[in-house]
Write a structure and sequence with these properties.
This protein has a single domain, classed as Survival protein SurE-like phosphatase/nucleotidase (Stationary-phase Survival Protein Sure Homolog, Chain: A, 3-Layer(aba) Sandwich), CATH 3.40.1210. It has 252 residues and is α/β, with parallel strands linked by helices. The structure holds manganese (II) ion. Manganese (II) ion binds next to strand 4.
Length: 252
């Protein structure tokens, strides 16, 4: 297990405790919040791993790196002799819907698991402040059991978003479209130099039938979106072959 809110995050603990009855759970997570760190990996500095007091039977390790670093050292070092059956990331505090998946450290941790060929999922709660992670953790535990049994094709992962409160059901969805404020706030620091703060709080979503945003925001449903790591735009392959590019080989 990992996350991007840090190894002490209450959402991580809720998920770890919900998964513990299914089997052995090992947490390897960033030692501090790493939200919106995406899939970055620390190739140019050393990492430290610190073993923390367990939560009951749940062993815990903190890594001074990104969520991807944590999954990397967790699988390739701490559990090198016993590859995990499932990689779980979350429960994140806040949604990871639509294009959020490209920025999210929570989703990236599951992507790293998927890149290693392991059944993987990320789970996020659409809430701020101090929410109840219980319903999200309980659903995720059922999903983890299914995932471990059914093992979808390598390179795929499941992205789960849970609405606040008591969900009315669950839906299988596609990624929707969110719009962001595109805010850039300019201020002066105490020495008179400008600094910039990006990414405002204003967000809305477009109506995309069958999407994760619609399920969570409009219908109060838990959203389960299958993702895969192959970002190829297949629809453009043929067209690109018709472009006038030097040395371009004919269709094969
Ligand atoms: Mn986060």
């Amino acid at each position: 297990m990992s996350n991007d809110d840090g190894v002490e995050a209450p959402g991580l603990r809720a998920l770890a405790e919900a998964l513990a009855p299914l089997g052995e759970v090992t947490v390897c997570a960033p030692d501090r919040e790493q939200s919106a760190s995406s899939h970055s990996i620390s190739l140019h500095r050393p990492l430290r791993i610190e073993e923390l007091p367990p939560w009951g039977t749940i062993r815990r390790y903190a890594v001074d790196g990104t969520p991807t670093d944590a999954v990397y050292v967790g699988v390739n070092h701490l559990l090198r002799d016993r590859r995990p059956e499932v990689v779980a990331s979350g429960v994140n505090r806040g949604p990871n819907l639509a294009m959020d998946v490209l920025y999210s450290g929570t989703v990236a941790a599951a992507m790293e698991g998927a890149a290693m060929g392991l059944p993987s999922f990320a789970v996020s709660l659409v809430a701020r402040g101090k929410p109840d992670f219980g319903p999200a953790a309980a659903f995720a535990a059922k999903l983890a059991a299914e995932l471990g049994k059914r093992r979808p094709a390598p390179g795929t992962l499941l992205n789960v978003n849970v609405p606040p409160g008591k969900p009315t059901g669950a839906a299988i969805t596609r990624l929707g479209r969110r719009t962001y404020s595109a805010a850039v706030v300019e201020k002066l620091d105490p020495r008179g130099r400008a600094y910039y703060w990006i990414g405002g709080d204003e967000q809305a979503h477009e109506n995309v039938p069958g999407s994760d945003c619609d399920a969570v925001f409009d219908r109060g449903l838990i959203s389960v979106t299958p993702l895969h790591l192959d970002l190829t735009q297949h629809a453009l392959l043929e067209e690109l072959r018709g472009w006038e590019l030097p040395g371009l080989l004919p269709s094969q």
